[in-house]
Amino acid sequence: MTTLFTNPPNSALEIAEAQRLGDVLYGEKKRRSSLGQYATPIDVARLMASLFEFRNTDVVKVLDPGMGAGVLSLATIEEFSQTKTSNARIEVTGFEIEQPAIAAAGENFLVASAEVSELNYELKNEDFLCAKDTLCGYTHSIINPPYKKLSSSDHRQAGLRELGVHAVNLYVAFVWKALLELAPGGQLVAIIPRSFANGTYYRPFRKFLRDNTRVKQVLLVDQRTSVFSADNVLQENVIISLEKNFSSTSNASNTTLSWIDGDHLSLQFERKAAAHEIWWDAENTCVLRLLKEMDADSFPTYSLEDLNLTVSTGPVVDFRSEDYLLPAKDPAAYPLLRPRHFANGRCIWPNASGKRAGGIMKREETKKFFWPVGFYVVVRRISSKEEPRRVVASVVCPSDFNTSAICFENHLNVYHIDREGFSEDLAFGLCNYLNSEVTDRFLRSISGHTQVNAGDLRLLPYPSAEQLRASAKT
Predict the structure, then answer these.
(1) More confident residue, 243 or 17
(2) CATH code matching the domain that covers 2-294, chosen among 3.40.50.720, 3.40.50.150, 3.20.20.70, 2.30.29.30
(3) C-alpha angle 434/407/404, rounded to 5°?
(4) Paired sense of beta strands 359-360 and 325-326, if any
(5) Closest CA to 206 of 295, 152, 141, 279
(6) What is the pLDDT of residues 306-342, one digit of tens each?
(7) Domain extents for the chain?
(8) Residue 66 — pLDDT band, cuts 50, 70, 90?
(9) What CATH number has the domain spanning 310-470?
(10) pLDDT at 80 over 60
(11) What global pTM score does this model have?
């Protein structure tokens, strides 16, 4: 174990880091993956613990719901011992289901208790989500929860629903339940995927956060793979600091948004944001926005509904329509538009490149897929890493085809009016706006991935129809 450090590990926290590097906590990686467990590196643990405040109190009560070998709790103990201003003591309660990990944690806390005389601890070899009668009024909780889907049939769901917890992923369930365990004014720091900040599945969780916590700080890790590179985790992660407070006036306080380099955890950029900037409630979606440079008040103020437009995902899914697909040059083929058929803002059908068919038969079975030829705006659902902006929009023109109807494949989002096209000037003006820096900044503020869903486009603030028409460049 001493070979893992330039100098032998001395503190309990360094020992826990050596155990992580030695891969001794959870056994083989396949099992860790099945549990959704990713051990926290020591520098990340210290960064998370540094976000805590230890106010003048007799007892600091720490909850660690997914303890592992205790690296997060031990980092909190280290921070407490270095920053406390009174004779307070610290009590830690940790939960861990894996026997090798909790055995390692027990040894590490023995070392820690010799380092910090004010420490008491209790380590529980049980599932935190199943634990009963644990509402102990913790003052602090620090957590790197497992990242794995939580099915509706999971045996833990009944108990979670009794608590009012609605979760589709383990990390949401862990953080939500941990917040319930905190006393009013209690603090929670968690490292979690950014996926919770947007989307329908996580809306109940976001509403709970908005209504019951103050978002004190959010740290965004720029490089996707750097924090958990040893585990090949590609999720974009955030470290979020919350304060449990049931006073609605507390949400008026500013939130600190910080962008950090994932390789060195060094600060790249930081700004303050008001509550109305970070919580965006268009269409009652309660999205958490993380705006880097542009204030919320500088965005346009119109909605897609104000424009009388709709955006939908293309209806044709290959594996469901395989019997009706044709090469684009087949005389019986109608255009089946795919992402490859668009470049530089225009449609280039037919395009012979690509393995997937560019045409489709017009039959009774496929009639529902066909839309009349007209002016449409399309956006790729997935943009490549090389694209400078998230949205890649193009205009579909009637002159692009010699047929009366066309189809859109499932990897495209399409703007339309009741499955028909709209005016030429509005189409080109809308395309220009979607390809603009304003749109890019907004989407980056609500989403950490390169996929652009129709739901994201519905949330966009838009200029008025008159402004879009005036900006059209055909």
Answers:
(1) 243
(2) 3.40.50.150
(3) 105
(4) antiparallel
(5) 279
(6) 999 999 999 999 989 999 999 998 999 999 999 999 9
(7) 2-294, 310-470
(8) very high
(9) 3.90.220
(10) yes
(11) 0.83
pLDDT, tens digit, for every residue of 396-450?
Answer: 999 999 999 999 999 999 999 999 999 999 999 999 999 999 999 888 888 877 7
Cβ contacts of 265 within 8 Å, gap of 6 or more? 43, 44, 47
Q: How confident is the model at residue 133, as a pLDDT?
A: 64
- In the chain, the amino acid numbered 389 is R
- Give just the sign of the alpha carbon dihedral 86, 89, 95, 100: positive
How many CB atoms neighbour CB 344 within 10 A? 6
Residue 33 pLDDT greater than 90, yes or no: no
Phi/psi at 19 (nearest 5 deg)? -65, -40
CB of 440 closer than 8 Å to CB of 391: yes
Residue identified by tokens 């684009």 is 328
